[in-house]
Amino acid sequence: MNRTLYFNRWLNSFYILFLISLYLFFAPFEDDGRKIFPHIDKVGHFSIFFLMTILLIVGRLKKNYALIFCILYALFTEIVQTFLNYRTGSIFDFLSDTLGITFAIFFIVFLEKRAREHK
After folding, report:
1. Which regions of the chain are under pLDDT 70?
2. Contacts of 76 (CB under 8 A, 6+ apart)
């Protein structure tokens, strides 16, 4: 195995974000009362999966593999949450996750296209 894979800062950042997301998706949280923005959790889901997808692709994982992994992880988190009595799985959370993944793929493709045009 390539030794530089272990020292890839993008993948190491992904691992840290992955662990943080596990905590956020499965830890029991108390309701904090009134929210400033009613759908802030959807923004959080979008942001986490956007960043995870970007970090995987920039970390040299193929786009297809990053896409499949992130979608399966999003599906896994929502299914597991339906079995937890202190969390609820939501199709809208899954859609937010999928939108984050999709935007990340389009963003990377856009950047690659711009880079080819400037050569």
Report:
1. 1-6, 31-34
2. none
Domain boundaries, the chain: 44-119
User: What angle (nearest 5°) sits at the alpha carbon of residue 96, between those of residues 46 and 60?
Assistant: 50
Cα separation, 103 vs 6, whole angstroms: 27
pLDDT at 63: 95
88-95, long-range: CB < 8 A, 24+ apart: 92/42, 93/41, 93/42, 93/45
pTM score over 0.85: yes
The tokens for 34 are: 């009134």
